[in-house]
Design a protein that fits this description.
The radius of gyration is 26 Å and the shape is globular. Strands 1, 2, 3, 4, 5, 6, 7, 8 and 9 form a 9-stranded antiparallel beta sheet that branches. The chain has 2 domains: 49 residues; 145 residues, Jelly Rolls. Helix 1 runs antiparallel to helix 2. It is α+β, with helices and mostly antiparallel strands. The protein is built from 2 helices and 9 strands.
Length: 207
């Protein structure tokens, strides 16, 4: 009876640890390959709205020799002005791979439209064949650790037609959970407490 009870407590403690272990945040990546050449990108993807964004496909309207996709055959370009990504639910981070013919500025905003941070591309031009010396296409640019991000603006030439983007990745906000060390301490403490109570019950039974 007592052995069965101890086994149950051990299993319960292990279950507690498994449930309490931190949840990993996995980024969601948009590669645009499900869309067709020259499709306007707006609300085709859950929880994110695009503006001034249009698909280009390698072998059709995209010069893939200068602007090679990061993956697949499709990219998205700034059609008519700076491209904006608006998140219906704020995200913890956002990034993408960019090939550009003029300098880029990325700006992250909170849900109220307040600027959180901005950054610039490493080069003025990183096209595959005619980019600046030392550059390479598909430069990774993005933000994380700023707090909830409500929107992202990518600005090259003011009139657009100055960059392509691929594999846009964003990390949805998740509920904070205890650190692994804390979880282990809580779990071990609970196990010790349950063990002491079991010993007290055994002593009471045999006294």
């Amino acid at each position: 009876m007592q052995r069965t009870t101890l086994t149950f407590l051990l299993r319960a403690s292990v279950l507690l640890l498994l449930v309490a272990l931190p949840q990993r945040s996995f980024g969601l990546t948009i590669d645009f390959d499900a869309l067709a050449d020259l499709d306007a990108v707006t609300n085709q993807f859950p929880d994110i709205l695009f503006s001034n964004a249009t698909i280009l496909t390698a072998g059709i309207s995209l010069n893939e020799f200068e602007f090679p996709p990061k993956s697949g055959s499709n990219v998205v370009f700034d059609d008519g002005g700076p491209m904006t990504l608006s998140f219906l639910t704020p995200v913890l981070g956002v990034s993408g791979f960019f090939t550009y013919l003029s300098p880029l500025t990325l700006s992250a905003f909170d849900s109220g439209g307040n600027l959180l941070a901005s950054l610039s591309s490493a080069f003025a031009n990183n096209m595959a064949l005619s980019g600046d010396g030392g550059s390479s296409p598909n430069e990774l640019l993005g933000f994380s650790g700023l707090g909830p991000i409500g929107s992202l603006t990518i600005a090259g030439d003011a009139s657009g037609g100055s960059f392509v983007a691929d594999n846009i990745t964003f990390t949805p906000a998740t509920t904070a959970v205890p650190e692994p060390g804390t979880v282990m301490l809580v779990g071990s403490g609970l196990l010790a407490l349950l063990g002491r109570r079991l010993l007290q019950r055994r002593s009471a039974i045999h006294s």
